[in-house]
Amino acid sequence: YWSSRTGAQVIPRGPVFDAWGTVDYERGRLGYPTGPLRSTRDGQVMDFEGGRITVTGGRAEIS
């Protein structure tokens, strides 16, 4: 996904992409992704213009 503010970012299919879809993708409150999907000790996280999606144990949370 690309925007002039965030540049090009890859969102792999899976829990993050599915959660992003529940809030209407880039048209919703999260907007575009601002960086890559990152692995953490507990799972994965991806930042967006309007928040973050965190995946722990295969379950995604939007904050």
Within the largest sheet, what's the order of strands? 3-4-5-6
Radius of gyration, CA atoms, in whole angstroms: 11 Å
- How far apart are the first and last residues' alpha carbons, in Å? 20 Å
Roughly what percent helix? 10-25%
Average predicted local confidence, pLDDT = 97
The best one-word shape is globular
E-strand count: 6
What can you tell me about this protein's structure?
This protein has 63 residues and is mainly beta. The protein has one domain (2-62). The chain contains one helix and six strands. It has one helix at 15-22, and strands at residues 2-3, 7-8, 38-39, 43-48, 51-56, 59-62. The strands form two sheets. It has a four-stranded antiparallel sheet with strand order 3-4-5-6, covered by helices on one side. Strands 1-2 form a two-stranded antiparallel ribbon. Strand 3 and strand 4 (43-48) form a beta hairpin. The longest helix has 8 residues, at 15-22. The chain is globular, with a radius of gyration of 11 Å. The mean pLDDT is 97.
What labels would you give this structure?
single chain, 63 residues, mainly beta, 4-stranded antiparallel β-sheet
Q: What's the short story on this structure?
A:
This protein has a 4-stranded antiparallel beta sheet, covered by helices on one side. A two-stranded antiparallel sheet has the order 1-2. It has one helix at 15-22; strands at 2-3, 7-8, 38-39, 43-48, 51-56, 59-62. The radius of gyration is 11 Å and the shape is globular.
